[in-house]
Amino acid sequence: MQDGLAGMLGPGELRRLEECAREPIHTPGRIQSHGMLLGVATGSGRISVASENAGAWLGRDVAELRSPGIRFALESATHVDPVAVELEGDEFDAIVHRGDELTLIELEPRIASLEYARTSVVAALQRIAAVDDPDELRTLAAEQIRAITGFDRVMVYRFHDDEHGEIVAESRAADMEPYLGLHFPASDIPPQARRLYVTKLSRAIVSTSDPGSPLLALDETVTASLDLGAAELRAVSPYHLQFMRNMGQESTVSLSMVRDGRLHGMITCAHRTVRRLPVLLRRALEVYATHLSLQLSSAESIGRLTRALHVRDRRSALLAPLFASEDVMSALLDGPATVLDLVEADGVIVRIGDEVRVAGEVPATDPAIIMDAVAADPETTDSLVRDRPDLAPLLPGFAGLVAVPLAAHGALVFLRLETTRVVDWLGDQSTANRPDDLSPRVSFSAWRESVDGVSRPWGPAAAEIEDLGRELADALDRRAESALAALALRDPLTGLRNRRYLVERLAKPGPARELVFVDLDLFKEVNDTHGHDAGDAVLIEVARRLVSSARDGDAVVRLGGDEFVVLCTGLDHERAVGVAERIVAAIARPIAVPGAEITITASCGVVEVDAAASGAQLLERADAAMYRAKRAGRNRVSD
Predict the structure, then answer these.
(1) Which pLDDT tens digit goes with each residue over 426-481?
(2) Closest CA to 542 of 521, 528, 525
(3) What span, in angstroms and rounded, lies between the C-alpha atoms of 485 and 500?
(4) Is 218 buried (19+), middle (13-18) or exposed (0-12) by CB count in 10 A?
(5) How far lies 511's CA from each of 165, 367, 574, 579, 606, in Å?
(6) What is the 3-state secondary structure (H, E, C) of 389-407?
(7) N or C: at which end does the chain have fewer Cβ atoms within 10 angstroms?
């Protein structure tokens, strides 16, 4: 479960969300009474719906309005928004919503004194374009919009993944209580309201004292189902009006910030007395909010990318040595940089294969028992007591856990200690601050809530741990593949390179090379006399002496049975013969095996590596030179 605050508010919050979600706010059957609404039937031109304050026009032909502006608005539909019209000597802004059967015309009285206020939005946009810090952007936006609109308070909201909100910027009159940094529950803006904010980018509520103007219709069944979701004048939910009154708000304008089809933030302007903005200014502010949203998205993306690149570089530096390391656990947990340097956690438990190790602060419980209890699938929690009560007793003092599997190799478990999380809410969230569970809060003064049994939120660290798990599993896969590939080029008994390795090495061009072919004399008698176990022990000791006698850059190979090859690089024939003579002398020393001491000799043939010859041809020549040594009496070198 991801980190969130919604669960802190208890069942009352869930009930409010459910109840609020049932309210049909898009079909209120009335409008705000500062404006008028007319519904014109498609085809006939008859006004079949009208708000009560325009009821005199119900049933009449729209042509009877004798308004060229309204006629133009109907013809242009949404291409011009709004259209300046005159009706019976009064000036209005007309907003048209074209439907299949009904076209709605909203009429808002024009506000001459604010006609050119929208031009200041252009200068505001130019100013924020130069800002790239998200916090500074939000703060500047709140200040600018308050200056443009003249509202008492402007707040910028950010919505978290669990849908609860946070006031992340604010500009307010000096005598108003600060709300900056306070959180509010998801039910303050329920799901159906959020859906409307995604498609309707601004929402103006002019007066909480306005009872609204009911809709009238020739067909009375139409008013209850008429969708006003896109309308500017849509009346307000009684619950929300009471909410606003409790906050001391008479008028509000809200602007949506939408990202990838989701409402990720809002700008809310609030005023203590009636204040109305003209349509064109609201449209300009919609553009401003959209631009701000895009700029915030860009700035936050750059911040995430910068962090991701930094984390990736540190992760690569940690994982790169795994290929050469004999001890993977030590590379992860004991080096100058460890997995705890990549992740902000208090402790970690690592299982790779049958080995389990820990680092940092971990509980006293046997870590293998913890690993057995962790789910095989990835999981994240900031409260074990809440999400994994079965696991919590094994991890006393700890509340946060992120577990990721390492494919077939094991798992990583990062831990965080239990702490007390403090959240400042916009108003007391308890029932003491509500007449009943479904009523709005009465007070919105800051209210602090403390919650135990939680850890610090994991935030982006959870995804970074999953990335670490995937990359570590890939690294372990490649390491295993590399080990298998290397094993295919090794002799299983002696650990020396094998014939396949030699053939591949001889096929590659290189500097001057000499081939020393070594064959043990009368080795069959060792097996016949002392047994194969003793014979194997002799072969292992011979391999060790060959490596000791050869130079660091030479390749020592077991061809099979009692035959060996030393490939000497960068040395002339005479010196290669010297290496072979050292080998003969070293092998001739007695070899101790359980219950016996065995003396064995070797015959060596030395040939120069001819680039024109194949590997098989070179081995035939070296083998022939070795047999010349045997025929000459064994325990010697021939070339």
Answers:
(1) 999 888 999 887 789 999 999 999 889 999 999 999 999 999 999 999 888 887 77
(2) 521
(3) 12
(4) middle
(5) 71, 54, 16, 18, 17
(6) CCCHHHCCCEEEEEEEECC
(7) N
